[in-house]
Amino acid sequence: MYLQATLQVVWAPRGQTPIIQLHPGRESTHxxxxxxxxxxxxxxxxxxxxxxxxxxxxxxxxLLAYPExxxxxxxxxxxxxxxxxxxxxxxxxxxxxxxxxxAAAPELNPQEHVWKATRQQxxxxxxxxxxxxxxxxxEEHLTTHTFPCSLLEDHAYTQLCMMFK
Length: 165
Fold this sequence. Notes:
This protein is of the alpha+beta class. It has a single domain (about 30-160), classed as Ribonuclease H-like superfamily/Ribonuclease H (Nucleotidyltransferase, domain 5). It has helices at about 50-65, 85-90, 110-125, 130-145, 150-155, 155-160; strands at about 30-35, 40-45, 70-75, 95-100. The strands form two sheets. The protein has a two-stranded antiparallel ribbon. Strand 3 (about 70-75), helix 2 and strand 4 (about 95-100) form a beta-alpha-beta unit. The longest helix is centred in the middle third of the chain and has 14 residues, at about 50-65. The protein is globular.
């Protein structure tokens, strides 16, 4: 997420062009997120960097959030989703399994839909002057809303998930 607003189409009275003041800097922060496909709830973690070490920390957070359940994590092929740190978490936690999504297929990744919906609500056309304030709004939206997902039914993942119960 960048402090610089992304502009989107907005409604305005005819002849009154809306003005969005843009921040000239490129301040940014990163978010990790996992969507519980059954409940539509989002687990999120903010981080200044995205690397395998931080991804490993997020996996630990995910394991703590669901201590009694096996977890099948559908993950994209970002470079920070691989490495010795990730392998160490998987070796130490056999109830966690990662299934990598096909390359260049964001439409199959439920998390991408969560990011898009949250950016539309929070970070498009915003007037925030401080990254911390915008990031707090972003995180609050993620944790206070549910994100229904039909991916399980649409792509027959329900049968796959039954194997991990």
